[in-house]
Amino acid sequence: MSVQITATGYDLLRDPRLNKGTAFSDIERRTRGIEGLLPPASITIELQVARLHAELANLDNDLQKYLLLSDLQARNETLFYAVLMSDPASFMPIVYTPTVGEACQKFDEIFHSPRGMYLPISERGRLREILSNWPQKDVRFIVVTDGERILGLGDLGVGGMGIPIGKLALYTACAGVPPQYCLPVALDVGTNNQDLLDDPLYLGLRQNRVRGEDYRAFVDEFVEAVQALYPLCCIQWEDFANLNAVPILERYRDKVCTYNDDIQGTAAVALAGMLGALRISGQKLTEQRFLFLGGGSAATGIAELISQAMALEGMDIATARSRNALFDIKGLMVRSRTDLAEFQKPFAQDHAPISVFADAVKALQPTGIIGVSTVPKLFNQQVIEAMAEINERPIIFPYSNPTSRSECTAEEAYRWSQGRAIFASGSPFPPVEIAGKTFVPGQGNNVYIFPAMGMAVFATEAKRVTEEMFIVAARAVAEQVTDQNLATGLIYPPQSQILKASLHVATRVAEYIFDKGIARVSRPHDIGALIRGRAYRPVYPT
Ligand SMILES: O=C([O-])CC(=O)C(=O)O
Ligand SMILES: [Mg+2]
């Protein structure tokens, strides 16, 4: 990358996008006024990466590693991405799920340096003015949260900002979206978490959450300000509570370039996992019956996308939906229940009420169970044994995050099913050995989708993010799983290859965007080359 760099001296060393630290060459040091400001030796970026690997290996807890990496990101962005991309399978659990969850919980205690933008509802009417303080004038991606449902950890108020920061780091590290186009945003509308409100260190607005019309108007103002300042920007909604996530998506999906990662990204990764699982079991999608633990928007998002995919295989949509049953805190969602929200009703079963999950498994005989409940351990021995009795290869997907909220561990699923489970989880688990055979659990996490979706939208300047784009993405993930992966039980591409996998998914989605005429750049001859050509590489500017 060749850029015009005018900064000199300490300004250069303190600009994370330009800083090379000890990798500045002798000539750069002489011409840029930084001679004497660094120790004399100049080393390569490879050596810097190796030094950081060693430094990280010496820390004994993941939160410390998170802090070291986030300080590095604030100091030397290129090196931060070079480290992440040198070993994504090792570093993703640090900058992302599960460690990012702990970082959000402790946000106020560990706050070091600012990143992204904080928009408090107290400043309603001034959002455009405040947003224009952001130094970059061409923003293409905003990941925004209001902090109400951070992973499965609940309302973390302004501390939820860790999630947009982590997600956007993966846009770059996993799919090559250049970091200068990315902006993390926290909408601070208050918090209902009393521990935070009582904590003198809490950094957000000290008030309860604003609801209703005032909330809606605030979100409207935000979307309008983004549109006005950054007309090519895609807004990704992240970790909103159901009560806001569903209506926000409905309100904007056909008006601006936007999507909800927890609803649509998670749905696509689940569908990809199903397609992989079916290659192991040798069955068809339309033969499956799924029982979801959890009835929120992640559950209905997955259920709907699976239903759409079943419909594409010739099943009528109502039958397809009836093969996706939801079970929440009040039991199986059946037609006679009067408490179901509109978005849950399509999946209500024509069945007598059932209040125990294991009983629902026995009654409905699902081929797969999918956990999106945020309640750990509910896929207990009884549930998994029942699944293993019904199915030769039971599909067990505990998708709740972080690890502490997972409905079961990989070890439990494999052990209680005598190694027959087809398993994937939202948060990472290490390989498991049962009776001399090693199983590699896949991570059914939307990280296989959102960075690639981002890269496709970035390269094509897509006007919209449509539902079909997620089906295309799911297929593109699944088609990369090799027979060798499947032999170890792995139904997703290996994380060590996530950049390659995401560039492939981005290419497929970009083809679709061009086919549908929703791109704002003209169709190139070679779409793969377009994607690869626009992808960020962690090399220092010269
Ligand atoms: O962040 C993750 O690991 C996946 C996700 O979107 C969530 O759990 O809300
Ligand atoms: Mg999320």
From TrEMBL:
The family line of this record is: Belongs to the malic enzymes family.
Q: Which residues bind a divalent metal cation?
A: E238, D239, D262
Q: Which residues bind (S)-malate?
A: R149, N401, N445
Give the record's cofactor note, including how many are bound: Divalent metal cations. Prefers magnesium or manganese.
> Which residue ranges does the record assign to the Malic enzyme NAD-binding domain?
263-514
Molecular function (GO) terms listed?
Answer: malate dehydrogenase (decarboxylating) (NADP+) activity; metal ion binding; NAD binding
Active-site residues (renumbered): Y96 (proton donor), K167 (proton acceptor)
Q: InterPro entries, alphabetically? A: Aminoacid_DH-like_N_sf (IPR046346), Malic_N_dom (IPR012301), Malic_N_dom_sf (IPR037062), Malic_NAD-bd (IPR012302), Malic_OxRdtase (IPR001891), NAD(P)-bd_dom_sf (IPR036291)
Q: Which domain of life is it from?
A: Bacteria
Protein name as it appears in the record: Malate dehydrogenase (Oxaloacetate-decarboxylating)(NADP+)
What is one Pfam family matched by this protein?
A: malic
Metal-binding as a keyword of this entry, yes or no, is yes
Q: Which UniProt keywords apply?
A: Metal-binding, Oxidoreductase
GO annotation terms (biological process): malate metabolic process
Q: Does the keyword Signal apply?
A: no
Which positions fall inside the Malic enzyme N-terminal domain? Answer: 73-253
Q: Which cofactor does this sequence's record say it needs?
A: Mg(2+); Mn(2+)
